[in-house]
Amino acid sequence: MRKTDDDAYTIGRLRTDEFPRGECVLIFRQDGKRRRFRLGTDNEAEARRRAPTIYAEAVKPKGSSVGELWQAYRLEKAGKPSVAIMEHQWKALGPHFGRMNAEDITIDDCNAYAAARRAIGRKDGTILTELNRVRTVLNWAHKRRLIRVSPHIERPSAPKSKTEHLTRDQVRALLKACSMPHLQLFVYLAYATAGRAGAILDLTWDRIDFARGKIDLENPDIRVPHKGRAVVPMNRTLRMRLLEAKQGARSDYVVEWGGQKVGSVKRGLAKAAENAGLPHVHPHMLRHSAAVRQAEEGVPMEEIASFLGHSNVNVTRRIYARFSPHHLLKSAAALELDDFDLTEVKRTA
């Protein structure tokens, strides 16, 4: 059985009288059931050529409700990171939009959804992300000619972005408040590598090179487009912690609990922050904290961008340049009005 690039389906073989070597068949899961379609050939290259068209027709929604289109989109995009998030988002979106005909959605429908979410404490940033997902699915359906028009999806304005970060002393306080070894190791890794939470939780020991002092945050098993992950050097503090953890390792994963991969550290970090008397801490805040600290120490933006895995240094500069002691220094100096130097200032003081 051969997996396709996006893992939406697999191509296997079925022995028949017509194809003694085995006829190629398309296999995928839909609505929790295993489905199989014959491809009419025993040539694997030809089977791969025919499979996308047959798969698209097989999963084509029979109706135009938001729920049917949502499911069809998930099936086509299977294997991409966003699809895993969609399952969680649908728990909120499904009851409101699921049975609606996609073309009939109005601004009032969107506003009603936003009001209901705000009523239970959800922030506009979360609501915006959820409605953006509906918009993405309906635009996709329109391009596939599954609906005649893609309706306007009214959304809240994007909240002003904040670069929440911890000082070095606050990171130390957070570490002391981590009661579990795996949580403490996550904090060390997140701060010392500026890695994304997913990259750190995916990290395996074979990508930690103690001889060269390097950590490769790129997961070779991820075959779909994703945000950049860097190869970064390990500092002395992190090396010591990793060597300690390696001695007691019970699995291939660096951050583990009971010999198993850790799925999330959100609750653990929030509890540790509460115990340390810190404001709410989420995993991504440690990445921001690392970048801010580098900027405060005068590390060039190009180097910070490389450390963060940013492909565009302008993204790094827009977020972190203001924390650099050199930021706008020449611009301010150009506006000096006095000609005397500091020695003259001291004499007149």
From TrEMBL:
Pfam families: Phage_integrase (PF00589)
Domain Tyr recombinase: 161-333
GO biological process: DNA integration; DNA recombination
Keywords per UniProt: DNA integration, DNA recombination, DNA-binding
Highest taxon of source: Bacteria
Molecular functions per Gene Ontology: DNA binding
Family: Belongs to the 'phage' integrase family.
Protein name: Integrase
